[in-house]
Amino acid sequence: MTRLEDVLEATGYLIDGKPADGVLLGQAARDSRRGRTFAPDASWKGPSALKVYFKFAEDMPSEDEVGTWRKEIWNEGFSPLLWVISPQRIDVYNGFGRPRPQDDAKANLLTTFQTIDAALRELDALAGRLAMETGSFWVQTPKINRRHSVDHQLLQDLGALENDLVGAGLDRLQGQALIGRVIFTQYLIDRGIINGERLEALSGCHELSTILRDIVATRRLFDWLRATFNGDMFPPASATVDFDPAHLVRVADFLEAVEPITGQRSLFPYQFDVIPVELISSIYEQFAHSAAPKAGQRPKSTAASTDGVYYTRLPVVSLVLDEVMDGLTGKETVLDLTCGSGVFLVEAFRRLVHQRTRGSRPQRSEIRDVLYGQVFGVDISEAAVRVAAFSLYLAALELDTDPQPPEALKFAPLIGRTLFVGDARTIDTTPEARSTFSLPDGRRTFDIIVGNPPWSFKGVAGTAARRSSGGEAPTQPRGEGLDFMLRAAEFSHAKTRFGMVLSAMPFFAGSKSGVAAALHVVKTLAPVTLVNLSNLSSWLFPGAKMPAMALFSRHRPQPADQITLVQVPWAPAGQRTHTFDIAPSDVSTLSIGAWEAHPPRLKTLAFGGRRDLRLVDELCERFGSVSAELIKLGTGLRDGLIAGNPARASGDARALADLPLLQARDLRPFGVPDELPKFGLEAAERPRNLEQYRAPLVLIKEFLSKGARPVVGIANRDMVYTDAYFGAALPPLHRDSAAVLAGVLSSALAAWWFLMTASEFGLWKQRLFRSDVAGLPIPDLVAAAQTESGANIIRLAAQFSADGLDDTALLALDEAVFDLYGLDEDERLIVRDGLFKAGCEWTPGQNASIAPAQRDQLVEYTSAFVRPLDRWFAARGQRRLCAEIFELEPRMALRVVRFSLEEGQGPSRMATRRPDEALEDVLASIGRRLNVPLGSLLTGQRELRVHGPNEIIVIKPAAVRYWLPSVGLADADAVIAESMTRGAA
């Protein structure tokens, strides 16, 4: 008979009978969650806070019972899976699917497995611990998506409710206040703080929805709540609103899940005692951006979007607070100068209480001490500050283990005490906040400063206004996040820890002013860790106009002149679950001096590695730039024409009127259409000079529309081109130089270079700036045209112009460019992989990067790995490597390669082995031989190199991106460094 323990052992959640990291059993699993009826027998929490629940039953429960469990799990918002296990079978359910009124269990059943060895192996490959840890589960289960989870669904329903109230004539702010009041009341009811008897005594009804249909009963209930809880929960101003009965009825319909159009009831899925309190803060984003347009009108920017207000998703909050609050006592103070709805403050408050009580059940007095004395916030929006107060009160109630009687739960106001409405730049000078933020000898300081300050770019006027405000610090040219960072530093002491979410743009900026501003902040707060979140822009801050960066300071020991850089990769799990994982290879370091000396190094290290960094530096030393080479030819790279609004076009364009016009969609690689319309205008906003339109023209498209290779063409006749292009007009005697330039710009080397150094490409948009192209190192164009490799490039450019692109010929072009630059085999490999990485800016490339690595790809990785080691061993003695590739089933979550030392000279040997046993057995066998608990070490690590006597085992997730040849070179470099450190022979 199969037991729960057998299933957990077979799927990696138990290792040799002991729980793997993140696994809780029995009462510990039950104590880890809030709920009503569902009591798990085990749970697993992964590195990104996702949970899997396991429930064992001798007899399979009814579908109605499973539906009840699923509803609770769905309301938690973090559980993609529920396993229901019996001796006969295992049913796996989708935890993110919205609860259904009927047949919920059937609708959300993902798959069923019989409890036999073969089926358990299939279950392990699908949803075992390694499949969850490595992300392979998400590749196999497209049905599970966070779009259907409680946070998305609640915000969607509340948005519809708000718009209905406003459409029925209620002021938007009053409507938001009513919704917030109802949510709080329903929370009290769901939590049992107010029971049915109390409701009936107050209003004559047992249910809130019924009360809302009676305006007298509603007023009586809200008056009692305001008197009982006090504080900022029910501000007096909003309490005086005399709501129309129709408005209250619409809210009552929401609580009864009445469909507004049909009037039919369904299932009200929400359980406010189970929903995470932090989700309340996300309602603020919904409200802050909810200026709905009138029929026929375009949406208008709200104050929130103009000011750069964006809800900080809970995974980012966890990332920040995990770092800055690790190892604290619970007595520290926390400040957020741009607190918004308080999402950072709520979670920081929770953690402070937990740290202060060392995990024991907190007393109400301890909770209130932290609430009233350790958590501080400022925001310019009064509505946001009220939501922050509301959220903190809810969190305090949640932490209270015995929230009775209601009359004993009265709160003191937070606004004006720890939360303040005002401008962070001047808050300490206002009468309301002066006593809080000022001390006799200066400003008050705080132990932890966190936040997500506005990133907004308010144009040239906004930048000028900030620059004119005084101060000697360099000013960020676009946005003001770094300004807030420096302002926050004024409230810090020498050991204050910082965790802030900022725009990534100034850290990777092409502008000198942007880099100067970022450098100034990093030097001021050193030592610093930067976490680049730009790969997650599509879901992390989907409404923002810049990619994100998290900056941490003074939270971990490290040299003050060193930046730790973390590059968070795109992953299908993150896209669908709004979580992310960081592997050891995603972490690197760079000195502040190295960054300051050559700013593109920071981006190179983020998107490449040490070898990319060396190659970038080497090319810059060996060659001049495109700009410098064009200057030698008496020309330069220019922006195209801007026609502008004809009513305001004042530039004389008569000299251009008869020339053909190349517009944004006209150019194909190496091909300029024969038939083009005439420009035809006599005036334009920026017509440019006629000389820049003279042939031969090398034209580079600004946007990379279909792939990582820039779209470059050669025009052999004069023509006007728009600002969709950058162009260089070369002298007629240098047509061959034009072909060489076009070939280089179309090559893998250019795609790699732009990924490593361009200001936006890879970070934010599939776009190049003129300065990006101008900065590409390139050999002397005239001399290059006379070389054999140059001749090959010229020939291929002509072939492409006549016949179009050809994949085989493109590879030949890459090789000719590599020859022209004199790249060795390792450098060529780095560049080819750079082209692959650049292609991951598009969906096909992303899918290719996460596909399971096949044998050929493992062979390429292994060949690259052994090459530098072959050279190392050849110089040191009489030994060589033998590489053994484990050919595991394609669906397996990991790939394994073993390298062993053997006597003898010559190149390394390579072999493949197809093991008969399952992946877990392979790992267990290796672990026993090396006396290393591989199952435990792999938890949360994602990548592992295990050293044994004369052997190294490399274990990584199956995704291709972990097994690129360039990664093999980097891994070999790491092994050599480790061996030298250990003094190995």
List the helices and strands and how they pair.
Blueprint: H1 4-10, E1 14-15, E2 18-19, E3 23-25, H2 27-31, E4 42-45, E5 51-56, H3 63-76, E6 81-85, E7 89-94, H4 104-107, E8 109-114, H5 117-127, H6 129-134, H7 136-140, H8 150-167, H9 172-191, H10 196-203, H11 208-212, H12 215-229, H13 236-239, H14 245-255, H15 278-288, H16 303-306, H17 314-324, E9 334-336, H18 343-357, H19 364-373, E10 375-379, H20 382-399, E11 419-421, H21 434-437, E12 438-439, E13 442-443, E14 446-451, H22 459-467, H23 481-489, E15 492-503, H24 512-525, E16 528-532, H25 537-540, E17 548-553, E18 562-567, H26 572-577, E19 587-591, H27 592-597, H28 600-607, H29 610-622, E20 624-625, H30 626-632, E21 637-639, E22 651-652, E23 661-662, E24 683-684, E25 697-701, E26 712-715, E27 720-721, E28 725-729, H31 735-745, H32 748-757, H33 770-774, E29 777-778, H34 781-785, H35 788-803, H36 807-821, H37 825-839, H38 843-850, H39 855-874, E30 879-886, E31 894-903, E32 909-913, H40 919-930, H41 934-938, E33 944-948, E34 951-957, H42 965-982
Parallel strand pairs: 5-6, 9-10, 9-14, 10-11, 14-15, 16-18, 23-27, 30-32
Antiparallel strand pairs: 1-2, 3-4, 4-5, 6-7, 7-8, 12-13, 15-17, 16-17, 18-19, 20-29, 21-28, 22-24, 25-26, 25-28, 30-31, 31-34, 33-34
Helix pairs in contact: 8-9, 8-14, 8-15, 15-20, 17-18, 18-19, 18-20, 23-24, 31-35, 32-37, 35-36, 37-38, 39-42
